[in-house]
Amino acid sequence: MQIGFVGLGRMGGNMVHRIRRDSDHEVVAFDFSAEAVKAAEEHGAHAAGSLAELVGKLSAPRAVWIMVPAGEPTEKTIDALLDELEKGDIIIDGGNSKWTDSVDRYTRCKQREVHFVDVGTSGGVWGLEVGYCMMVGGDQEAVDRVAPILDVLAPPDGWARMGGPGAGHFVKMVHNGIEYGLMQAYAEGFELLHKSEYGLDVERIANLWGQGSVVRSWLLELAARAFEADGNDLHALEGYVDDSGEGRWTLQAGIDHDTPMPALSAALFARFSSRGNGDYAARMLAALRNQFGGHAVKAAAGQ
Question: Looking at the annotation, which residues are catalytic?
Fold first, then answer.
């Protein structure tokens, strides 16, 4: 089948590469980066210089997969596509959009008689080789039409329809919330190992735990890779951890559904602290201990 692809970054570019490498499906690719479009061409995709050109190179009924950052970039891309697409065409959002936005976009597309499918996509930069796990939301008819592309992108049994509009992105959101907690647990455990009096080799431990341990996982394999690349101390990295929104959305959904999520909340707040966002609170704590108990305080640098 034919598929248009908008957004050729680290994920999108590799997805186009995988489609062309592993199937006969035709891809028409567009990105604002000419270099990214050229790379897609080298993998066998047809280049488009604009969204209008991309749509024009596809035969009706069309399917266009967008892989751009969540929020305004996705919103603007969908608005622009709706001006170009026709009745019966499909828009697939494979980015990390908020599930409530996907529900709204489904409604807006339906008013224009265009199908909308939300695909929560996991796999990162490794997806090119091992495939992408995909959580799909939308009408069954539209999902069935894009199934041949999903079959190529995913490993065996690696995709499934979760339910109606927004379900795919909802499940992916919770997936990422769980990921926050797992990563935080590994980070805390390995810090304790690193600080212990035994002079432990944390790379060796990470590799060991990957052999039959109940805490073995792909994240643990990646931890071992990180230690191998940078050493036990991870000196090349700054302890600054960003978040792209999914943890916050998952925590809010937990609040909305009266679901306790202490692991996620601790993991999310730890990321805030990594950026210095807890500095004022720490100074306040020191000040209070000094005031009520005369406990020693440390003067700030330069004071």
Answer: 172, 179
